Amino acid sequence: MEVLFEVERSKLSKATDVLLKDDLVSRASVLFKDSSTFGIKRSSYFIHVSGLEEACKKARELTKELGKEVEGKLRDEVIAKIKEEEDSAASGFGAIFG
User: Fold this and answer.
1) Cβ distance 56 to 28 under 8 Å?
2) What's the rounded Cα separation, in Å, for the pair 51 and 34?
């Protein structure tokens, strides 16, 4: 399961602390990306959490007061770009050690 949140830049530090200090969420894949990376002109960050359903539910609870969950087309586009970056990095890494 995976979820995507958007938090204001001013709340990023708090969101990072809350998510990474939680035992369940910290075992999931948690990625923080500046929204400008995706051509979005807002002063915010996206937080992508990928892992067990329990970890994603806990991440929702922890970020409820800090930001909002991204849904719909924007969610799909951002997650697709994140996966594209990961695949590109993995293939580049494979070429180095191939």
Assistant:
1) yes
2) 21
